[in-house]
From TrEMBL:
It comes from the Bacteria. The chain crosses the membrane at residues 28-53, 74-98, 123-142, 163-186, 192-225, 245-265, 365-383, 418-440. It comes from Mycolicibacterium duvalii. Keywords: Membrane, Transmembrane, Transmembrane helix. This is Oligosaccharide repeat unit polymerase. The keyword Transmembrane applies.
């Protein structure tokens, strides 16, 4: 797929700007508000559907285990207002950060350098090497093939818990989140051969076996950013629209099948114990609970805060831990130790105790109090800024904007802007870009010197 460079022009935040070199302007929805609010709306929609199903009376005997809660919370006007204000604050600061990040244009020559095939090939090679080291080390630490297969067929996160609980070589496996979508893009562009692309995708699957679905979802958002930066305008003819709808339906079908398969492998025993045997029905229940429980918890906690039945002001100093990078937290907590029940929320909400991430709103208040909200909301200003800054730099480097976009899309569920692997991916992006650029310059200087010797002239300086 050929890249087309647009002439430098500035038409505002939604249009092309100097130094972006976008083929077409980003679509209208490509903003922090979209990535934040769409999952939030999906969460509350899933909760409403579960509540509506329950109100009909024809529910399974194991309803609580299937939906994540036995009795739905009753939204109050005050609690609803608090949720609206809280999410509006997150969207506002993220949008402000996004706009600030778009204001400063990178040098056009720098962006042009980052979009050359030689740079992209070397950048991908560095990301791939990092991925290989991380995956190889992680599986070495996990152990034998028997333990690996056993971990896949249980509901406990034995993979993750088998790794050291601190930043180390195993953290490098997160590079697969960038390597796979970038490899697929470069293969389509005919910059790399297909075996490298397939190997990058395989590494991502191996990482997904350790990190569950998170790495797959984040890699998908990374590729979404690549698509936005390289898409070309198409005619809005009937056949073109039909092809897009067919492609969308196929992608949704494949995605649902993959999720159903992953869910069956990891959770089949759980669902069979409560009377569900169909893999696709299992997946529907899993998606319903996965989306609906954070809304259930948010509604209950918001009402408790507004009625003063649960007061947790936090502390101006200690609550700053809400924004502290997790790699500075040296004691790892296993997921099985992080399961939350009603006690975690001062009995302000009813839920099953097999969920660990029940919305940034509720979980931050439960641990860090109101001051934790302040620091967390401020963190999303950085997320919006980093999203915009990365997006401005070429395609393969700009793809890392998808990491921050995914962080924004997780507000409904969990706060991961300060997660160690997210910070690692940002640092890896910068380090690999610098190293690939130096690599290109060295090779150019060597080629120029070789050419000058053959021609008998003085060496030409490397192109800058």
């Amino acid at each position: 797929m050929a890249l087309r460079l647009a002439p430098a022009a500035r038409t505002g935040a939604a249009g092309p700007v100097d130094g972006d070199h976008l083929a077409v302007p980003p679509p209208w929805w490509f903003t922090p508000a979209f990535f934040i609010l769409v999952p939030v709306i999906a969460s509350f929609t899933a909760w409403l559907l579960l509540v509506g199903w329950r109100s009909r009376g024809s529910i399974p005997a194991s309803w609580a285990k299937l939906s994540g809660f036995a009795i739905p919370e009753t939204p109050s006007l005050a609690g609803t207002l608090l949720l609206v204000v809280w999410y509006a604050a997150v969207v506002s600061v993220a949008t402000w950060g996004w706009r600030v990040g778009l204001e400063k244009r990178p040098p056009a020559a720098t962006v042009a350098r980052l979009m050359t095939a030689s740079f992209e090939r070397r950048y991908f090679a560095l990301i791939m090497i990092t991925s290989i080291i991380g995956i190889a080390y992680s599986y070495y630490k996990i152990g034998s093939a028997q333990s690996i297969i056993g971990s896949l067929t249980t509901q406990e996160d034995q993979f993750t818990n088998a790794l050291p609980g601190y930043a180390g070589v195993q953290t490098l496996r997160s590079a697969t989140i960038l390597a796979a979508p970038i490899g697929f893009y470069l293969w389509r562009k005919k910059v790399i051969a297909w075996p490298f692309m397939v190997f990058a995708l395989l590494l991502l699957v191996l990482n997904a076996a350790i990190a569950s679905r998170l790495s797959l979802f984040m890699a998908a958002v990374v590729y979404l950013v690549i698509w936005v930066k390289t898409r070309t305008p198409s005619a809005h003819t009937g056949s073109a629209v039909a092809r897009r709808w067919i492609a969308a339906v196929v992608l949704v079908g494949v995605g649902m099948s993959l999720l159903a398969g992953l869910n069956y492998v990891r959770n089949a025993l759980y669902y069979k114990d409560v009377g569900v045997t169909n893999p696709y029905v299992m997946n529907l229940y899993q998606m319903g609970a996965y989306l609906g429980v954070p809304a259930q918890v948010s509604i209950g906690v918001a009402d408790a805060v507004m009625t003063a039945t649960w007061e947790n002001p936090g502390h101006i100093v200690t609550s700053s831990d809400a924004a502290r990078p997790t790699f500075l937290q040296f004691q790892k907590v296993a997921k099985s130790d992080g399961l939350k029940d009603a006690e975690a929320y001062a009995y302000s909400v009813e839920l099953e105790s097999n969920f660990t991430t029940n919305s940034v709103f509720a979980d931050t208040y439960a641990v860090y109090g109101m001051w934790g909200w302040v620091y967390t909301i401020g963190l999303y200003a950085f997320a919006g800024w980093a999203f915009a800054r990365l997006f401005r730099y070429g395609v393969v480097v700009g793809a890392s904007a998808g990491v921050m976009a995914h962080c924004l899309s997780e507000v409904w569920r969990t706060q991961n802007v300060n997660f160690g692997f997210v910070i690692f991916l940002l640092l890896l992006t910068v380090a690999s870009a610098v190293a690939a650029n130096l690599w290109c310059r060295r090779d150019e200087a060597r080629d120029a010197e070789f050419s000058s010797r053959r021609s008998g002239s003085s060496p030409m300086p490397a192109q800058r």
